[in-house]
Amino acid sequence: MFIGEYKHALDDKGRIAIPTKFRKQLAKGAVVTRGLDTSLFLFPKEEWDKLAERLANLPLGQSNSRAFARLMLAGAMDVALDKQGRAVLPEYLREYAGMKKNIVLAGLYNRLEIWDEQKWAAYKKKVESDADSVAEKLGELGF
Q1: Dist. CA 129–CA 4, nearest whole Å
Q2: What CATH class does 2-116 carry?
Q3: pLDDT of 1-37, one tens digit each?
Q4: Which residues of 65-78 are buried (b: 16+ CB within 10 A; e: fewer)?
Q5: Cα angle value 18/23/25 (rounded, 5°)
Q6: Model pLDDT for residues 63-122, shown as the tens digit of each residue
Q7: CB–CB of 127/134 below 8 Å?
Q8: Whose CA is closest to 34, among 77, 72, 78, 90?
Q9: How far is it, in rounded angstroms, from Cα 114 to Cα 94?
């Protein structure tokens, strides 16, 4: 399970250091892909396989289904951790997420989200100011 928020910096080769407590979960392989809200998603291989299967089974006749599957699947790349627990983020994904130097890894149960630090701060500020409204919507859904 991934939880917490961790600040790191991209090195000159586009690598990020994965927090030590998460490395074992990613040791059997991982996949990084375009996320939502200009973030990247990093999944353990097992979790990615479950999601990819669901995406592959979305109805082809619906344009939103095709678009979302393309966003997630075409942007995906296998990654492996090196001996220092670092993973290379492909340049096209760093560009998509607008990553410069400082990044944030946010643990979200079955995945890590990787954000440019400034974008994460702006997103978090917006969501935190809307927390009551979000909670009400979730309540309407029975959560």
Answers
A1: 20
A2: alpha beta
A3: 999 999 999 999 999 999 999 999 999 999 999 999 9
A4: eeeebebbeebbee
A5: 130
A6: 999 999 999 999 999 999 999 999 999 999 999 999 999 999 999 999 999 999 999 999
A7: yes
A8: 72
A9: 10
Give the pair of three-digit tokens for residue 91: 């340049």
C-beta of residue 3 within 8 angstroms of C-beta of residue 87: no
Whether the CB-CB separation of 98 and 49 falls below 8 Å is answered with no
Sequence spans of domains, the chain: 2-116
